[in-house]
Design a protein that fits this description.
globular, mainly alpha, two-stranded antiparallel sheet
């Protein structure tokens, strides 16, 4: 264990960051457990848009692994990366289902958007755009995404249902609704 601890100390400079191998192992396990739901929820949401659940599960796991390894090994930061739950819901329920676009069209748009953001990052425009957005709007966007995800969860649980008034109360005594509550 001492050889491994020495290796990790040399590579990640654990003492400089006020930590040790056992603390990092526990933190890594805890982080995985708090994010593991993404491996299930992301494929469920994207399968509603017509994507194959097994393929989305595999892509979610592989992209999370690659992103987290790059963050840890290249940036030397203890952050786990995985697909965002707000944007996948927007992709599935607004773009594909709501606007009637095909999953292929939406995926192409996401790919092109990614290329644009990479380009903006290289020319330092991305940071200027982010800094130009007022803090209150940044907070409001986060709240809005959270409410959107909560609404989708309530709808999937049958707690809120489609009605003439846009949203109606569902059968809150059903098993699904009770489990969600």
């Amino acid at each position: 264990m001492d050889n491994n601890a020495g290796f990790f100390e040399k590579v990640f400079k654990l003492k400089d960051h006020g930590t040790n191998v056992s603390t990092e192992v526990i933190a890594g396990f805890t982080t995985f457990m708090t994010m593991a739901y993404i491996l299930i929820v992301n494929p469920l949401i994207l399968s509603d848009a017509g994507l194959d659940m097994g393929k989305v599960f595999t892509a979610t796991a592989i992209s999370s692994l690659i992103g987290t390894l790059i963050m840890g090994l290249y940036a030397n930061l203890p952050f786990a990366l995985a697909p965002g739950m707000g944007l996948n819901a927007f992709f599935a329920y607004t773009v594909v289902i709501g606007m009637g676009k095909s999953p292929e069209f939406a995926l192409t748009a996401v790919f092109l958007e990614g290329l644009i953001f990479i380009l903006l990052s290289f020319v330092n425009v991305r940071e200027a755009i982010i800094n130009s957005i007022p803090q209150n709007i940044k907070k409001a966007i986060s709240v809005g995404i959270g409410l959107f995800i909560a609404f989708i969860g309530l709808a999937n649980a049958g707690i809120v249902v489609d009605s003439v008034t846009l949203v109606g109360l569902g059968d809150i005594t059903s098993g699904t609704a009770l489990l969600a509550l």
